[in-house]
């Protein structure tokens, strides 16, 4: 199957993945009522770890014996899990779930540019440069002109989300370079294990021992982040990747914000500004230009 072929089953899986990841922003908002950001990131990884380990065991996938691979998993866990999860949740202490999802949509644009610079088989083409420019323009619209002359804690939160998107972009390149020979399920387990190993000492030093006397709604949000938004999401991600390829899978970033904005409005009462919605439109256009297929189909 080519990377441009999308079957009905793949479409349903893509929409489901977008809904799950869109919901993760709402789950984090609920959990933040009782749990600090770094501890939420640890919960998301810690409870996902045994689920992914069970999947690897049931599929009889052997664990790597090369220490270098586990070192690569440690770096991958930092770039793809520990750092971005922490930055996103910390950012959500100051900005809305829907706005965070819009900014994380820049991952696709950053990823295309990072791949063009770091990977030999992914040249930095004119559409990628144009898409990156549109993505940055969309971010500028979302953040507004006030960021140039006035300090606002929301600005730092938005920059944290953009930093998370950049981490995801670098993680994609790291995986291509150092982990392409491993099975997809093992990669999911390895990076979650690496991220957990990083977050445990960080949380103990910064937040202390996590509380267990949490409200049922908080536990439900934490488990949803781990089981749905991490374990199930990664398994769906890799299943879609095998079916349609990375280029088509990148388009999931266009579908996440509508789910996050809708869920945030329905369950959290969030209302986004017109500039945020316009900025999302420009970022979405940047992703489409970066992808390049719309122009080829038109031709």
Number of strands: 0
Largest sheet: none
Estimate nothing, just give the exact number of structural domains.
Answer: 1
- Count up the helices: 13
The coarse silhouette is: globular
Give the H and E element order.
Answer: HHHHHHHHHHHHH
What are the segments in which pLDDT stays under 50 over at least 5 consecutive residues? Answer: none
Q: What structural class do helix, strand and pairing data support?
A: mainly alpha
Helix content: over 70%
Quote the distance from N terminus to C terminus.
23 Å
**Rg for CA atoms:** 19 Å
The overall pLDDT, averaged over residues, is: 89
Share in β-strands: under 5%
Jot down its keywords.
299 residues; mainly alpha
Q: How would you sum up this structure, described in words?
A:
The chain has 299 residues and is an all-alpha fold. It has one domain (8-298). Helices cover 78% and strands 0% of the residues. The protein has helices at 8-31, 37-46, 48-58, 67-91, 97-104, 107-118, 126-143, 153-178, 184-206, 216-249, 252-268, 274-291, 293-298. The longest helix has 34 residues, at 216-249.
Mind sketching the topology for me?
Elements: H1 8-31, H2 37-46, H3 48-58, H4 67-91, H5 97-104, H6 107-118, H7 126-143, H8 153-178, H9 184-206, H10 216-249, H11 252-268, H12 274-291, H13 293-298
Short overview:
This protein has 299 residues and is mostly helical. The protein is built from 13 helices and no strands. It has one domain.
């Amino acid at each position: 199957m080519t990377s441009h072929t999308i079957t009905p089953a793949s479409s349903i899986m893509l929409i489901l993945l977008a809904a799950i990841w869109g919901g993760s922003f709402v789950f984090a908002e609920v959990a933040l009522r009782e749990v600090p950001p770094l501890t939420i990131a640890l919960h998301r990884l810690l409870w996902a770890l045994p689920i992914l380990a069970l999947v690897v065991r049931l599929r009889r996938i052997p664990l790597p014996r090369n220490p270098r691979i586990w070192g690569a998993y440690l770096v991958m866990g930092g770039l793809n899990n520990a750092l971005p999860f922490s930055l996103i949740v910390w950012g959500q202490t100051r900005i809305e779930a829907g706005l965070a999802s819009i900014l994380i949509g820049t991952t696709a644009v950053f990823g295309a540019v990072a791949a063009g610079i770091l990977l030999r088989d992914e040249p930095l083409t004119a559409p990628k440069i144009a898409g990156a420019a549109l993505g940055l323009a969309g971010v500028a619209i979302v953040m507004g002109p006030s960021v140039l002359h006035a300090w606002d804690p929301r600005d730092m939160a938005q920059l944290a989300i953009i930093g998370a998107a950049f981490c995801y972009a670098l993680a994609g390149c790291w995986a291509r370079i150092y982990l392409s020979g491993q099975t997809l399920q093992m990669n999911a387990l390895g990076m979650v294990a690496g991220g957990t190993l990083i977050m445990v000492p960080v949380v103990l030093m910064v937040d202390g021992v996590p509380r267990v006397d949490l409200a049922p709604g908080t536990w439900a949000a934490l488990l949803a982040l781990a089981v749905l938004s991490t374990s199930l999401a990664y398994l769906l991600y890799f299943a879609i990747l095998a079916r349609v390829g990375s280029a088509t899978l990148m388009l999931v970033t266009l579908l996440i914000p509508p789910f996050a904005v809708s869920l945030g409005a329905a369950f959290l009462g969030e209302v986004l500004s017109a500039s945020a919605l316009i900025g999302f439109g420009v970022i979405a256009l940047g992703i489409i230009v970066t992808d390049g297929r719309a122009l080829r189909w038109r031709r």
